[in-house]
Amino acid sequence: MRRKDREIVDFNEIINIMNKCDACRLALFDGEYPYIVPLNFGIDIEDKQLYLYFHSANQGKKLDLIRQNNKATFEMDCEHNIILYEERMSCTMGYASVIGRGHIEFVDDNDKLNALKIIMKHYHSEDFKFNTNLMKATTVFRLKVVDMIGKRRDNIHNEEKTKKYITLE
């Protein structure tokens, strides 16, 4: 990473960023070009191993690509704000992001309900009741994260008087 001053390597801080994000983009191999898809996700840590859980219909391009090559890269971001420097007549963007990679594993039918609960926990604080009949039409998979890094551009806490902030969230 070129800007080491923005790098985040602390695991808990990276997890805090992930918890603020509402979509995770997966990049999959698709021949000459990558295939990127935004997905809802859930986070689970088992024996110090981070897993990101996802769901989809039982058929589609994303599943076909995963079956061909289960390696994937992910990206998620949040805390977006425009930082204006009026005196310099310039601006930049504030953000927090996480990028990583890993291997995708399909979740067995016996573990599907628990995996879906992990996803719902990310978006809904209560125990969500699932229509188990719909689970037959759902494929659940998880990304076993092998490495990741966070990055933050946050000038909001600086005391520069020349800035104005616009929050996009």
Compile the SSE list and pairings.
Blueprint: E1 7-8, H1 11-20, E2 24-30, E3 33-39, E4 42-46, E5 49-57, H2 61-68, E6 71-85, E7 90-106, H3 112-123, E8 138-153, E9 163-167
Antiparallel strand pairs: 1-8, 2-3, 2-6, 4-5, 5-8, 6-7, 6-9, 7-8
Structural notes for this entry:
This protein is of the alpha+beta class. It has one domain: Pnp Oxidase, Chain A. The chain is 18% helix and 49% strand. The protein has helices at residues 11-20, 61-68, 112-123; strands spanning 7-8, 24-30, 33-39, 42-46, 49-57, 71-85, 90-106, 138-153, 163-167. 21% of the residues are buried.
Number of domains: 1
Total strands: 9
- Dominant shape: globular
Named at the architecture level, the CATH assignment is Roll
CATH topology: Pnp Oxidase, Chain A
Number of helices: 3
- SSE series: EHEEEEHEEHEE
Estimated structural class: alpha+beta
At the first level of CATH, what is the class?
Answer: Mainly Beta
Task: Pick out the low-confidence regions.
Answer: 157-169
Terminal Cα separation, in Å? 26 Å
Short description:
By secondary structure, this protein is of the alpha+beta class.
Q: Any descriptors?
A:
disordered C terminus, 169 residues, globular, alpha+beta, single chain, nine-stranded antiparallel sheet, 49% strand, Pnp Oxidase, Chain A
